[in-house]
Specification:
transport, 10 strands, ATP binding, 240 residues, ATP-binding, ABC_transporter-like_ATP-bd, single chain, 37% helix, ABC_branched_ATPase_LivF/BraG, binds adenosine-5'-triphosphate, alpha/beta, 6-stranded mixed sheet
Length: 240
């Protein structure tokens, strides 16, 4: 049996005349933390949107298999039931709900009340800022606090695969460190992670394997540690 949790083959996405993704292959195996890095406009977010079914199917070609099943035609709200959670760029928290309510929403497919309460307590321990603001509306949180909430909400669903789009964007260095600590811990707990990041160094330091995306193509892939030492990656993405 294959170890693939996610397999993307020949994925193409076009927005009208713009070919954003030009036929990429990508695999994420069980328990792996995979970094997908690349410059602005490389097609990373578009790839995640294709996986999560947030693009009109007519724009998408190729196959996307999750746990051996095609994801074609799946609506994003079905994904949580399939144990696939996404933290989108721009966070996507429910702005008019409190922090506590956002976390409860993350667990809407679960009915183990005690487990849900224990998980909320756990996330409040990890992110004390959220605990202090439990009843505050999520829309009034800072960018970094919303990022913490979005991550915790996604994890409340107990996903098998977590997709993260630019979790470090707009965060202070301390917040970035905190978010990456959570990502590494989540991975150690056995959750499979596909991490899209512009901060190539941090992403490759945390990941098992990496993919470089450039102008809609995957231009390099390999062991993350080897990629950190690769002169082409160093020059183009690590500013060295
Ligand atoms: P960033 O790191 O800046 O978010 P990215 O690698 O995630 O970049 P995408 O957001 O996937 O890149 O964009 C890939 C290309 O597709 C870009 O040229 C972008 O302008 C284009 N694009 C993205 N969304 C749309 C859209 N809705 N309509 C038209 N073009 C789009």
């Amino acid at each position: 049996m294959s170890d693939n949790v996610l397999k993307v083959s020949g994925l193409k996405v076009a927005y009208g005349g713009i070919k954003a993704v030009k036929g990429i292959d990508l695999e994420v195996n069980k328990g792996e933390l995979i970094a997908l890095i690349g410059a602005n406009g490389a097609g990373k977010t578009t790839t995640l949107k294709a996986i999560t079914g947030t693009l009109p199917p007519c724009k998408v070609e190729g196959t996307i298999t999750y746990q051996g099943e095609s994801l074609k035609g799946s609506k994003s709200f079905h994904l949580v039931e399939k144990k696939l959670a996404m933290v989108p760029e721009g966070r996507g928290v429910f702005t008019r709900m409190s922090i506590q309510e956002n976390l409860m929403m993350g667990a809407y497919t679960r009915n183990d009340k005690a487990g849900i309460e224990a998980d909320i307590a756990k996330w409040f321990d990890v992110f004390p800022r959220l605990k202090e603001r439990a009843q505050q509306l999520a829309g009034t949180l800072s960018g970094g606090e919303q990022q913490m909430l979005a991550m915790a909400r996604a994890l409340m669903s107990h996903p098998q695969l977590l997709l993260l789009d630019e979790p470090s964007m707009g965060l202070s260095p301390i917040m970035v460190e905190k978010i990456f600590e959570v990502i590494r811990n989540v991975s150690k707990e056995g959750i499979t992670v596909l991490l899209v990041e512009q901060n190539a160094k941090l992403a490759l330091q945390a990941a098992h394997r990496g993919y470089v995306m450039d102008s809609g193509n995957i231009t390099m892939t390999g062991n993350a540690k080897d990629m950190l030492d690769d002169p082409r990656v160093k020059a183009a993405y690590l500013g060295e």
